[in-house]
Amino acid sequence: MRFWTLQVLLALDQLLNTVLGGWSDETISARAWRLHQRKRRWAVARLLIDALFMLIGQRNHCQDAYISERERKHMPLEHRRPY
């Protein structure tokens, strides 16, 4: 049940990111990390997201989300090979 819940939350996150003009296979957190040095609004978003996740004990959430996207950790094993 936990795996299913995380997958649904990830899909909703990616959907919202897409609706907001982002890439369809990227989370808002990963996008915030990727753009935080180029755009002030994403720097603010990154700080807010990281602060929210600090409440549940996760530090550097946006950076971790970005690394996870780059390493394709949310994908099935057969899709994780580097390109």
What does this structure look like?
This protein is mainly alpha-helical and 83 residues long. It has one domain (23-83). The protein is built from 4 helices and no strands. It has helices at residues 2-19, 28-35, 40-54, 61-70. Helix 2 crosses helix 3 and helix 2 crosses helix 4. The N and C termini lie far apart (31 Å).
Structure keywords:
single chain; about 80 residues; mainly alpha; 4 helices; globular
Quickly give the structural class: mainly alpha
* Sequence stretches where pLDDT stays below 50 over 5 or more residues: none
Q: Give the end-to-end Cα distance, rounded to a whole number of Å.
A: 31 Å
Give the overall average pLDDT: 91
Query: How many domains in all?
Result: 1
The percent range for strand residues is: under 5%
Give Rg in angstroms.
13 Å
Map the helices and strands.
Layout: H1 2-19, H2 28-35, H3 40-54, H4 61-70
Summarize the structure.
The protein has 83 residues and is an all-alpha fold. 61% of the residues lie in helices and 0% in strands.
